Amino acid sequence: MASRMIIRLPSFADTKCRYLTACGRVATDRSDVLKWLRRQKTMEARYRRSGCTGYVHVMFWGEDGNHLHVDVAAREYFLKRRRSCPRPTRKIAEVRRAFDRVAGYDISSRITGTYFVAQEKLPPFVQSTIAETTSVRDVSIKTTGGTLSVAGAPISTIRWWLPEGLDDAFVQLQAERTATLDDGYLEGCLEVLDSAFEAFVLQGER
Predict the structure, then answer these.
(1) CA 88, CA 100: separation in Å to the nearest integer?
(2) Structure confidence by residue, pLDDT tens digits, 57-106
(3) CA–CA distances in Å: residue 131 to residues 67, 115, 138, 165, 171
(4) Measuring CA to CA, which of 40, 54, 114, 120 is 20 to 30 A from 132?
(5) Distance separating alpha carbons of residues 13 and 91, to the nearest angstrom
């Protein structure tokens, strides 16, 4: 297997994604690797890249011991949602060493990206679902979120919602991806989602 892999963590200066999740099953039946995975504890670390602060959360789980769950978020994500940023429990070097232990294996992942979009910039197929009606006794009903299934594209699902008190909508894209756990694994996941975001949500606008 490959050794001394240094996983590249996403630069949030180069993407509109604010929260990336990659949850997958590592394709191995090696007992030593599975035993190692089962022994690992959840990791939280902070890192800097291209002038932006990011947080990475890594969790190993599953009855078979071969599940690898990774969340990578921009600091802005927590500030926007008025939440405290995660408290690091590990140094980023420890997280990278954990990835190095499973380098070279294939992994089938469900990947999800969360983006902030000004409501007026939402694509027509989303804006058309935002409707408000007034019934008797001034009762108001408004669509504040929805889920759209996608066929024939790299992504399978588009979710959106309007958080109370915020001007921006949250748009979430989901896809399935099988890849090798190499130094560009997370960047590759992000590239799939960013490409779909530009095509389906931005629709040519920047």
Answers:
(1) 20
(2) 999 876 677 899 999 999 999 999 888 999 999 999 999 999 998 999 99
(3) 41, 22, 16, 18, 18
(4) 114
(5) 22
Tokens in use for 190?
């992000």
Q: Token pair 């058309």 is at which residue? A: 128
Structure tokens at 146: 């929805």
